[in-house]
Amino acid sequence: MLSRWRVPLGYVAGLVVLWLARPTPLLLALGLGAAAVGEAIRLWASGHIEKTLRLATGGPYAHCRNPLYFGSVLMGLGASAAAASPWVVLAVAIYLAAFYPSVIRSEADFLRKKFPEEYAAWSRDVPLFLPRITPGGPRASRFSLTRVATNKEWRTAVALPLVALLLYVRSLW
């Protein structure tokens, strides 16, 4: 129930971020750098996942079981840093804490039921959220650029430069 509000409220949170932002050149560069790393992880993960069809265990999924959410958190924290406002950090932290733990739990439950043997082997060696340095577990999936397009990750990849531009313009006010 709560998860269906995640995306619409994400847009609202984005507007709050922009309104409260007081970016400086240094924090823009550092924050947007972190956000770009987050998006790179999301692109990599999107190229491995075939939602509900197969369990993705290769690429970033060999480092953590939720690289899409990990990348999103990096993007959120990066945007918070770029905005240079404690209120933005608070708003983003509340948003992430309100949605991500329950979504991660429900997805883990779904995958455990849909792919019981594969999920058990994978979850033994791969942490739920914070990535391990070296890959672990079975690594069955391979990256495909077609999957990135199918998973519509281009929307987030297009949104990040737009956020950067909006924060830059906000820094000029």
What CATH first level would be assigned? Mainly Alpha
Count the E strands: 0
Q: In which range does the helix fraction lie?
A: 55-70%
Beta-strand percent range: under 5%
Tell me what the CATH architecture is.
Up-down Bundle
Average pLDDT works out at 90
Major β-sheet, in short? Answer: none
Rg, rounded, reads 17 Å
**Structural class estimated from helices and strands:** mainly alpha
Number of domains: 1
CA-based shape: elongated
Helix and strand sequence? HHHHHHH
Poorly predicted runs are none
Fill in the CATH topology. Four Helix Bundle (Hemerythrin (Met), subunit A)
User: Helical segment tally?
Assistant: 7
Fold topology:
Layout: H1 6-20, H2 25-46, H3 67-83, H4 86-114, H5 116-125, H6 145-150, H7 154-172
Helix pairs in contact: 1-4, 2-3, 2-7, 3-4, 4-5
Keywords:
173 residues; mainly alpha; 68% helix; Four Helix Bundle (Hemerythrin (Met), subunit A)
Q: Could you explain how this protein is built, in words?
A:
By secondary structure, the chain is an all-alpha fold. It has a single domain, classed as Four Helix Bundle (Hemerythrin (Met), subunit A). It contains 7 helices and no strands. The protein has helices at 6-20, 25-46, 67-83, 86-114, 116-125, 145-150, 154-172. Helix 2 packs antiparallel against helix 7 (154-172). The longest helix has 29 residues, at 86-114. The chain starts with 5 loop residues before the first helix and ends with a helix.
